[in-house]
């Protein structure tokens, strides 16, 4: 829903009703992930996408029916690689799409959700998408780490969903959970879609050089909140890095230590050290390699890398800590320009996140998409996401 949140808020605040189709589950080579959404307003205008064009026509028709008074609808598109084209998914994947009417009546707390997302506050919305009692379909509860709002029909169900949604929010996971009619954890028949909204992951780029300017553009495009940091004020300026969300003039290691103490680093944060200067990169890498980050990379030649490792060991960095360092950073694409290098680094970031190999897909067999390695969830959560 994040991709249509702005348009949805404008309609909600104006008192308009819209039809919203949301991908709630995917199987095989589905084109878009759970949470992708498409909005259809009363005039027939469309925002967003659920499949990149494959089944938008069918979802459009369903959204119109829901706006005309039909109940919320859960539909499956795609059956197999052989007949996927006939049902709309040429990629051979399968997606479940939940289509509902959204307005002040059906989602009275939408403004609360939108405010939390805008403020960068982690929040999840859990929506009943299938139930033996059809009157429960469309019911929802908002879940934060420390509180919740809304109800789904029974205290037992509310407690189970809030507990599980909070666990999914902690890992940034979006997906479907299954329960018995009254929230029984081993039951079935009632399905709840949990859509987790976390703040964008951070990308910290150290070194205000031309490669950093290209990296900020690509990083922002990929959805990161990008910070450029350099101790030299003549180079670290907003005019040189217009795509960065913030430009900081400070010693890299001191800034990173401050962010760590303030709790603003997490397991999704990427640190890119592009300085090429031991007095900058060794201190900041010493700090970075002792934080639970998603990625720590440093630019430089093979010779620079070997020298950097020795300097880091002299500073007390252990071999196990050094194992987390990607240096030289990026994948072997033959990149030369700053823009090509930014693509190479981004490719390694993506591969690290999703477990990709970096090889040509044409030379591989099996699934194209990979699932990230995340902390264990409950047995029911794992089963529901398979």
Task: Give structural notes.
With 386 residues, this protein is α/β, with parallel strands linked by helices. The protein has 3 domains: 104 residues, no CATH class; 92 residues, no CATH class; 158 residues, NAD(P)-binding Rossmann-like Domain (Rossmann fold, 3-Layer(aba) Sandwich), CATH 3.40.50. Helix content is 32%, strand content 22%. It has 12 helices and 16 strands. The protein has a 6-stranded parallel beta sheet with strand order 13-12-11-14-15-16, sandwiched between helices. The chain is elongated. This is Xanthine dehydrogenase accessory factor. Pfam families: XdhC_C, XdhC_CoxI.
Task: Write the SSE topology.
Layout: H1 5-13, E1 18-27, E2 37-40, E3 46-48, H2 56-67, E4 73-77, H3 84-87, E5 94-102, H4 110-118, E6 123-130, E7 140-143, E8 148-150, H5 155-170, E9 175-179, E10 190-197, E11 202-206, H6 210-221, E12 225-230, E13 246-249, H7 252-261, E14 270-273, H8 278-288, E15 295-298, H9 302-314, H10 319-322, E16 325-326, H11 338-354, H12 379-384
Parallel strand pairs: 11-12, 11-14, 12-13, 14-15, 15-16
Antiparallel strand pairs: 1-2, 1-5, 2-3, 4-5, 6-7, 6-10, 7-8, 9-10
Q: Which features characterize this protein?
A:
386 residues; alpha/beta; 6-stranded parallel beta sheet; 12 helices; elongated; disordered C terminus; MoCofactor_Util/Proc; XdhC_Rossmann_dom
